[in-house]
Batch of 2 targets.
Target 1
Amino acid sequence: MQSRSTPPTRAGGRPRSAEADTAILEATRQALVDLGWTKLTMGDVATRAGVAKTTLYRRWAGKSELVVDAVAELFDELELPDSGSLATDIESVVLQFAALLGRPETKTALMAVVAESTSDEPLRERIRTSIVDRQKRLVLTGRARAQARGELPVEPDTATAAMTADLIFDVIAGAVVHRALVSAEPVDTEWAHRFTLLILGGLAAAASGQGA
Amino acid sequence: MQSRSTPPTRAGGRPRSAEADTAILEATRQALVDLGWTKLTMGDVATRAGVAKTTLYRRWAGKSELVVDAVAELFDELELPDSGSLATDIESVVLQFAALLGRPETKTALMAVVAESTSDEPLRERIRTSIVDRQKRLVLTGRARAQARGELPVEPDTATAAMTADLIFDVIAGAVVHRALVSAEPVDTEWAHRFTLLILGGLAAAASGQGA
DNA sequence: CAGCTTTCGCTACGGCTCGTAGCGTATCTG
DNA sequence: CAGATACGCTACGAGCCGTAGCGAAAGCTG
């Protein structure tokens, strides 16, 4: 995960405690649930983790970095089981993502760090590598499977194919996040079904009218 | 806007200064640009606005409420000029929304208050009434125009029509926000065009396969 | 006009968090 | 063993929070 800030010098001393690492990240998630973003403090996390406050600062520069790493782990739970059709693949990942966003630590943290990242370039990069880019794999494998099934045409131009993948990623992730967090309405199977139909229709249209 | 906290008792004293109100909201937006969300402080805003800190607390309970009101004003700039076709209507609003999210005060504040609202029910309600619900009008008028032109069928069932509008709203707003803030890629005309094609295709498919 | 009500700016305060420094101890490497 | 690093602990100045108390200003009402 490349999570903590690497010790600047080379090896040769007491290694950092791995138990402390996991305890801190777990404590951070729990603190997010109990306190939310603004009321979460470094000192509180340290106490919960049974660790000195200085230990936190030796590994993370601040609250934002800590929370990014604490939440990034959760996103790796997402999977794309091969359900046999593109429609059910999409519905599955939508519902999984919605369930993930239903957990209080996830929803609070994700928006907060994104907000912070808008005026913090290194943090933005950290989010991109730790969270965003890792989830694009879901779109790519989903498309590959659909193409193997013959449900989607193969886009010959590599650049165009990449743009389409990015577009789909933003549409799916964005819509679910907006529905769940901004509109604050439930992402249930009904909604997932309607949304999936919309996407499939759009993909079909884009496939026919290729020369956009 | 119903922004500030209403004075609990009835009228009959010195009225609150309207100049102070606008100065505070403007100072808040500027502070967001300069400092970002976490480093923005009530005291700093007060100084910028040329107002006592106590005056801020007489009107807003805290940072979140203040920022919501400061940003809500900006969203009212969005318009839906009747461009003659649904496609260009969508592209227009997408680009407008993207331009709005390009402004540092907007992007920082929007995500931050949404994050805060996940563990603050009154704040969530404030966001809903001050920002979210007011922008759904764009979807509704856009649909009405498209139906008048014959571009979209009229959905007979009121409940279904409302769900469709909510879906489209979440998809458009969510995709633009995700593209601009999470993926941190530009929302240019190219992207807007591709996205619009996707939406239109989805709408067409949903219209034909009505009995979802 | 006089009197009531509310807001305003200002100052001050206790409480909390921040992020760092310093120390002695613990743990691992060569 | 010597060197290097991490650890827990304590303490600290700095900054911000949100509130209280004051005298003065500015409207409304009769």
Target 2
Amino acid sequence: MKEGPDIALLGSVIGDPARANMLIALMSGKALTATELASEAGVTLQTASSHLSKLEGAGLLQQRKQGRHRYFALADDDVAEVLEALMGLAARRGLMRTRPGPKDPALRRARVCYNHLAGDLGVQLFDSLQQRQLLTGTDTDFALTDAGREFLDDLGIDVEALERERRPVCKSCLDWSERRTHMAGALGTALLDRFIGLGWAERVPTSRIISFSSKGQKAFETYFPSVN
Amino acid sequence: MKEGPDIALLGSVIGDPARANMLIALMSGKALTATELASEAGVTLQTASSHLSKLEGAGLLQQRKQGRHRYFALADDDVAEVLEALMGLAARRGLMRTRPGPKDPALRRARVCYNHLAGDLGVQLFDSLQQRQLLTGTDTDFALTDAGREFLDDLGIDVEALERERRPVCKSCLDWSERRTHMAGALGTALLDRFIGLGWAERVPTSRIISFSSKGQKAFETYFPSVN
DNA sequence: TCAATGCTTCGGGTATCATCGAACCATGAA
DNA sequence: TTCATGGTTCGATGATACCCGAAGCATTGA
């Protein structure tokens, strides 16, 4: 954070592990509180507070006060894009270090990210859809095929209703524990809602873990068989 | 550079001012020696050596031994892209710090950036095209109009040939001395080549400066009149 | 008003890392 | 061989800033 060209400033801000973890957590698109971010980064609240003000000072974060909470989110899509570019470069360079994602196995397996399913199962879902050509396009830009629509209809998801929403139906989200794409957007949300509605899974309170029942597990595996 | 997610590693590598200056210098696309980079960064050779090995360790740089010189260059276009994204973000955030660009007036006036023209004249070129509606679209995403094609044809540039290349014809590049958009992409390269081919200008060896002759200067001004 | 929660600010301890002097290799020239 | 140039390695120094304990402010709820 000394003087220097502007990209050095950005680099040093992103370059701290705690801050990087916060940014990555925020890439879900969800706004998180300072406490949540502190836990995500593995530091105390005081330290997190300091980091957050630095991130905000650099224009990477946006703050929203709400009651006695303070929600932080990425400032805009530009920031998310740059972060994604960095993550992509890092991944291609094989620069994976320690901490290949959340340590908690349950978190790795299935967790909520924004309002959709992330973790192993999230990736499996996406892979499975793609494998069976229910999706078409690339990892970052894809759409439903006709077969895909039919499949989702069977599952009880009203695709046409989703398409009437403002936000994109199909949107990708990069899973940083798996380093793989999974499903976000309106469809991602609808899928998770449906899983919960069907009794396959439920959210564990005060955590991002999604707990699948054994029945739900089986049903999930039937609808979204593992590609391997 | 402690432990942490991979983007933290990249960030911290980029985050040092000396290293950032080196990277920026290398964005010209030219390979530079350790000594040159040390001077560019404003540190001694020993310090530069240490930085260079770190940059190389992070996969950002490529090294080529030649005689008793060592030439360093950006590892590939991915790296350049990420750096450009960072510079763009930094500029948009208004994070301008010290060093509002190259100090050398000649460098500020006209220099090569990758393979296209940057500096005052590069910005003037772009503005002029835009002003006369030879380009359509925004600063970051634009295309040639029919009038634009005709104009370039007059200048002796084969636009259709450019369109057969793989890389985009129209691409913007943010000039960090001017903090303004200028023309990159296949067209940017073709334009610079043409200026040199017409004898308007030439590259000054072992620097990024582009030197316009007085005739070339006039011709340039005729074709790309200053907007003001 | 009091208590609890969420968060920020302050202060000092500590560790990392950039920096440069000096010494050390390697290549090329005389 | 000897000298000069380009570059790396080593060691010591100094500054940056990360970190957390403790205290302080703000908002909510009782």
